Fold:
Amino acid sequence: MIPTIGLEVHAQFNTRTKIFCSCALRFASPPNTLVCPVCLGLPGVLPVLNREVFRLGLRAVLALGGTPSKTIRFDRKNYYYPDLPKGYQISQFADPLGHGGFVEIAVGGKTKKVKLNRLHLEEDAGKLIHDQVPDKSLVDLNRAGTPLAEIVSEPDLDSAEEAYAYLVSLKAILKAIGVSDCDMEKGHLRCDANVSVRKNASDPLGKKVEVKNLNSFKAVKQAVQYEIQRQTEALEKGEKLFQETRLWDDARGRTHLMRSKEEAHDYRYFPEPDLVPFSVSQEDVERERAALPELPAAKKARFMKDYALSEYDAGLLTEEPKIAAFFEEAVRATTDAKTTANWFIGSIFAYLGAHNLNIDQTRLTAPLLADLLRLVKEGKVSLQAAKEKIFPEVAEKGTSPESVMKEKGLLQVSDDKALEGWIAQALDENPKVVADFKSGKETAAMFLVGRVMRKSQGKANPGKVQDMVRKALQA
Amino acid sequence: MNLSQKTAFELAESCRAGKCSSEDILKDLARAIEAKDSSIKAYVRFDAKKSLRRTVSKEAPLYGVPIAIKDNICVENEAITCGSKILQNFVSPYNATVIERLLDAGAVIFGRTNMDEFAFGSSCETSFYGPTRNPHDLGRVPGGSSGGSAACVAAQTAIAALGSDTGGSIRQPASLCGVVGIKPTYGRVSRYGLIAFASSLDQIGPLTRDVRDSALLLKVLAGGDPRDSTSANVPVPDYLSFLGKDIKGMKIGIPKEYFKKEGLSPAVEKAVRQEAAQVLEKQGARCEEVSLPHTAFAIGVYYIVAPSEASSNLARFDGVRFGWRHPSTGNLLELYEKTRGEGFGSEAKRRIILGTYSLSSGYYDAYYLRAMKVRTRIKQDFDEVFKKVNVILTPTSPTPAFKLGEKATNPLEMYLSDIYTISANLAGIPAISVPCGAEVRDGKSLPIGLQFMAKPFDEGKLFQIAHAFEGTRI
Structure:
C-alpha cells in the first residue's frame, strides 16, 4: 500500500495585537481579559485589518517560495459554535494570500521539496472550558481574533517520518523569518493531517481521512503512522474506506471517528463585506523580500560547508535561529567549530531541554563558552568537570568558568612531581596489583589509576595519570 | 411658540443666543410625546431626564439640539433592541461613531425610536414592541424600517432623528410621513455601531423636517472612520453652502422604467412626473427621459444579497454571550434552536432562511454570485446616466402610506414598496426623499415623496436641488 499525506498547519503570528482589533496577544491571561467589543463580536462592531499580519503573512509566502496574491480579500466562513463569537470566522477562501511554494525536508539522507498548496490568513476562535463548573461549559474569548496563517501542503508526503520532518522544517523557517514564535505548548503551531492509502502508484488517491487533535509533532507522527496502518489493514481485509474526519486519542494512541462526510459543515463562504479588498503593491513585496534573513536550508548548507559539520549536526544547529546565531558567535570566539558543535549538541541542548529554556534565557555568552573550552583544552579542568560542574553554573549565573573552577577547586593537577608522588604511593600500597599487571593483567593498571585519582581527590589530570602509571609499571 | 415645532438649525441658533436651553427643548418634547406618542408609538424608550451630552463650544453645529436615535445604533451604557426580543436586556458598552460625532457637535442624545425587527420591513409592523402608526392617519403605517424616526419627526415629537437605510429604510418612511430623509453614499457615514443588516448596503442618515436640517446633520455625521474599513476618506464639503444655489441648467434625468410599474399610484405619478418636474424646469433645470435598463432586476438582486449578508450578520445572536436566552435549554443545539426560534420574529427568520439558502454550497453560484454580477450592471446603468444628467428624479414610494396589516401577510407585496429605493443601495449612490404633495385617501391627506439620486459623494447636489424644490412649496 502507498500512503499519501498532506498537512494543514495553523501558525500563530507573533504580532503584538489581534488581527482585527487592538487587543493584546498574551498567553495564559485570566479568561476574557484580552477582549473588546470587536473580538467579542458584539452587535454593531466592524473588523479593521492589522496591517502587520498582512506584512508578516507576505513575508512567509515569500520565504516558502510561494506567489503572493495580487489582491487581499477576506471571506466569511459561517458555522455555529460557542467559541466563535460572530457565528462566522473571517478567513480567506477564494483568494489566499499565497499560492504554491515548497518546504525542503531531509529524511534518511535524501532531500525533498514538499509542495505547498496555499497560505491564507484567518482569525482564531476562543476556547471552551469544560472542567470548571459541573454540567456547564465556560467560554474564554482571549484567543478569539488571534492572527493565524493556515499553510496547506499538497498531498506530497509519503510517510510519517516525512510528515515529521516537514513540520520541523516549516517551524524552522517560520521562526527564522520572525513570523511566529512556533511555541507548541502555547498552541502557536497546530496541525491537521490528511491521510489516504492506495494499492498502486497508478491508482487514484484513496479516500481522504482528516485527523484532528494533534497537539505535538510526535502526535502527528504517531497518528499518521496509525492511520496508514489502520487504512492498510482495512483495505487488505477488503473493507471499504470513507472520507471522514477522525480524532487522535493521544493517551490510547489511536484515532476514532468524529464525523462522516455527510455530516460535514456547509460553511457558506462569501466575501466579507466589512473589509475592503486592497492591492498588494510591488513595494510591499520588495520590502518583505528584503526583510528575509538567511533561511534554514541555506544556513544548514553553509554550516556543513563552513564548519565541516555533518548534515545531522548542521540541521540541529540551524533549527532555531537564536541557537544558530549563538553557535556562529561561539565559533568565532573558540575558533574550533567541531568542539563547539559537540558542546552544543551534547551539553547545551541537554541543559536547555532540562530547564525548558531558550538560549537567550540563560546567562551563557560566546566568550564564556570560549573560556570554558580553553580550560579543557589546556588541561586545567577535566571534560567531565567542565560539563557537569562548571557549565551549569556559568549558564545559570554568568560567572566566569575560571572562578567557578577555583571556587569549586576543580583545577586539575598536571604537575609531574605531585603526580609522581601519588603514583609511587599507590604502587607501594598495592604490590599484588603491580604483580598482576606484570603477569599480564592489563586491567590492573586501571585500578591503580583509580587509586591515584582518589589520592588527588579527583584533581589529578586523568589522561596524564594514565600515561604516567603505565610508565611507572613498565619501568 | 412650542420649541418642539422648530428645526434643528433654528434651535441651535436659539441655544447659542441663550434664548432657550436644551432643557427647555426637552421639556417641550416630553410634553409633546406625552400627548401624542401613546397613539403613534414612535418611541420604544424615552426618558426626558436621561439625556446624553458633552460640554462643547457654542460654535458646535448642533449646540443643544436633541436628536432621537433609531434603536439599531449603539449608545454607550444604554439598552438597544433592534426591535427584537432576542436583544432584550442587552446594553451596549460602546458608542457608535455617529453618536460620538453628534455628541461632539453639541447634540443631546435622547429617546430610541421604533423599527422593523433588525430593519427587516417597510412598515414598522415587525417590531417585537408593536407597530408604530403614521401621524397623518393612525390607521396607516409610517413606513419602515425607520418608521419610528420618521413618525416622531413628522409628529413634532422629535426635532430630528437618525435612521438607517439598507433598501429604502430612511427614504420610504420619510416619504410616507412627509419628512426629509437622505441615504448618503455608501461609505460616506461610518457604520461602526450600527447593528448590521446587510453590510454592503447599510448606511446611516438623518430624518429631518426640512432640507437645511438634513444638510446640517449630514455634515456632522459624514467622514471617514478608522473603525470602519468601508468608510471613505473623501473630504466632506459644507453641505449648507449648497442651499440657495440656483439650479439653472441642472440636468435632471427621469428614468422611464420607474414609471411603468404596476401599482404606481396615479396621484404619485402626477405629483412627481408632472408637477415636480414642471416646478424644477421653471427654475431653469432641464428634465429629460433616461433609461436604467436593469431596474427590473433590482428587487430580485436585493432579496438575494441583503438576506445572504443578514443570515451571516445575525448568526451572533445565539444566546451564548448576550441578549435573550431561552430559559430551558438542555444541550447546545437546543440552546441555539430555542433561543433563535423564539427570539426572532417571523420576518427575521424568513430572511435568515432565504440568505442561508442562497449561500449554500451548490446554490451560491446560481444565486449570490449571479446577483452580485447583476448588481454591477445596475451600478453601470447609473454610471452611464450620470454621464448625461446631474440628478435623477423618481417617486420614493409607489403609493402613500398603506393601512396597518394591509401587506403584513404578503411579504412579496411588502417588498415591492421599496421598488424605487433599492437601486440606490445596490449602486451605493446617495438619494434623498423630499415631500412633494399629498393624496387624499379615506378623507385623510397622505404625504407623497419624491426622490433625487446623484452620483457617489455628490450629496451637495442633492441638497441643492432638494432645497430649491422645497422652496417652491413653502
Notes: The interface with chain A takes residues 72-74, 80, 82, 87, 90, 92-94, 96, 191-196, 198-200, 226-230, 308-309, 311-312, 314-318, 320-322, 332, 336, 356, 359-361, 364, 368 of chain B (CB under 8 Å). Chain B has a mean pLDDT of 96. The CA atoms of residues 145 and 169 of chain B lie 5 Å apart. Residues 300-365 of chain B form one domain.
